[in-house]
Amino acid sequence: MEKIPFADINIRHLGIALEVKERINQIIHSSSYILGEEIDKFEEEFARYCGVKYCVGLDNGTSALELGMRALNIGKGDEVITPVNSFIASTSSISMVGAIPVWVDCDAKTYNIDPTKIENKITKKTKAIMPVHLYGQPAEMTTILEIAKKHKLHVIEDACQAHGAEYDGLRVGSFGVFAAFSFYPGKNLGAFGDAGALVTNDKQIYETVKKMRNYGQSAKYHHDFIAWNRRLDTLQAAILRVKLKYLDRWNKQRVKNAHIYNKLLKDANIIIPYHDPITIHVYHLYVIQIDGRDRLLKYLEEKGIAVGIHYPIPIHLQKAYRFVGKREGRFPISEKYAHKILSLPMYPHLSEEKIYYITEVIKAYKQKQDANNGN
Ligand SMILES: *Cc1c(COP(=O)(O)O)cnc(C)c1O
What we know:
The protein is 37% helix and 14% strand. The chain has a seven-stranded mixed beta sheet with strand order 1-9-8-5-4-2-3, sandwiched between helices. The chain is of the alpha/beta class. The structure holds pyridoxal-5'-phosphate. Pyridoxal-5'-phosphate (PLP) binds next to helix 4 and helix 5.
């Protein structure tokens, strides 16, 4: 068996090489490299895709979280509630605006923020709840929105792993006061470089973030406030416009692949992903849990199968957050599963044959392990 990559994001494999190259050529010949029509069109198309009014193209997903919070005037002295098991950017964006991230452990089945643990973290300083739609499955939005309404808090969606996912029939990005998307190459909708976007139904957030990304400019050389350069690159927008047309098809292929994995791993005594039936899970990652994870990881890599861990260290145990104090034992579910999770290869064009091979290797390993344990 040839080597199996973790994700396959090359245009050749996505079948879009010609279309993308043509678009890139057009942009190069147009000499319009910054903002312009290509950005406007992508923003229109992506807002429509998410079922919201506005989209602002940005340089990455972290900027979308950060600038969105700045537009809401979240800053020093404020608190934002967010899951402790996510990519660092969910939490670090809160720190970057000067606010305090208040962590919540995850639900043991979905890996998403445990909504039953949110309310007792709310204080007078709390301004927002930021759920993360982790691995491509929307967080439990009904409960989260209820809590937010009751306590008059904003809901900010970190949708960086869940392009096109749905909760109760609506696309993610349409639930919060704003949502952040990343188009990092490996995401379900990925650019060929860094890129991101903020989506919202709030006109004021939209207009503020549009200025924030462009030196605080309201008109050329008229700067309303001190700001950044955080623009989405025009070439990337052109590429994203091509890829957006295929996103639903690719997401469906991911779901199909997840179902094949589920079926093949069903009786292997391995914890497979839980799918909350109210959601459309878009399987950015296919994450299993298994004892002896580190040895299995090595074994799979020896067999030419690339795997990942998302994430090996919960955020409160990262060096960057050492200053917070109180460490091990604070978030037992996230801490425990960080030692057991393993992300298997997942991408739209992963073949059934490869999935079969991967699961056979895992099952063979598991049998050997169980035999050694005397089971
Ligand atoms: C990828 C990701 C981000 C950050 O996006 P960038 O584009 O890399 O800045 C934020 N949150 C989550 C959950 C992510 O997966």
